[in-house]
């Protein structure tokens, strides 16, 4: 367990169960796989204790995941509704940079993030996530999606706007940097991800991002999180 704690917190990337099994010289792959998911659940439980505040960027990401057997028998949908895509609500505490940034760098600085797998893009679904994770005193920047029509009633200010595709990286830079980095982590480390485990992997990504300046202290913080929360991870 302690070696797993160390390896998982010593890199910005992640570890596949197969790689950790190799490093630990452990015979049982399933035990290592479950151990990692228990640690990721502890990470998620820890981050659930915090709400985002200040100025936030908000958007959705669509992550490639495996199709279950039922979906494989259905005609394949295209675009956002594809059975191959899982929907993720992405939020980032973001504020304008006071001094002029280097060319190519984001015009905003980022603090904490959250990434939440959602079943659909209905406004009710989005509202429930915002109530649970965002301070009512916050201000939200987003596109003008109909999914966000009620946000003005949940936070201090909501600034929806029509965002041309070429400007999305300027207006909502950090949510899209985060989405791109998370997708690369999943593709490079895990290749195929089942929808029911996507949140677990995103828990790890967000936990590490939110503690990116802690260095070696990440080990101690994860150790505390591991013993502080009842772990309810179950294999599906």
Automatic annotation (TrEMBL):
<feature type="domain" description="ISXO2-like transposase">
    <location>
        <begin position="51"/>
        <end position="210"/>
    </location>
</feature>
<protein>
    <recommendedName>
        <fullName>ISXO2-like transposase domain-containing protein</fullName>
    </recommendedName>
</protein>
<feature type="region of interest" description="Disordered">
    <location>
        <begin position="67"/>
        <end position="107"/>
    </location>
</feature>
<dbReference type="InterPro" id="IPR024445">
    <property type="entry name" value="Tnp_ISXO2-like"/>
</dbReference>
<dbReference type="Pfam" id="PF12762">
    <property type="entry name" value="DDE_Tnp_IS1595"/>
</dbReference>
<feature type="compositionally biased region" description="Basic residues">
    <location>
        <begin position="74"/>
        <end position="87"/>
    </location>
</feature>
